Amino acid sequence: MRVRCILKEGESLLALLKRFNQRVQKSGLLREVTKNRYRGKPQSELNVWRSKIYRLKIKKFVEEKIKEGWPLEKALDMARRYHNYIKLDRT
Known about the structure:
This protein has helices at residues 13-27, 29-37, 45-67, 72-81, 83-88. The chain is mainly α.
């Protein structure tokens, strides 16, 4: 995608630059370039599966703590602190 602007007679460089910037923004070129620049690699199926299992274990841990009477915020904080323990749990 190419954006072009030609200097009109009597037009200042600032006006040309403003017109050019408007055309670039309307064309969606910046959005596309930014999307491609920060695009990450897709996760492998194994990593997707591991992250799902990890989220389920965190959820189970938080639910157990809530049943024990802990407030939600403290249960989430504990889950974040004990994430290594939860990750290595093979149950």
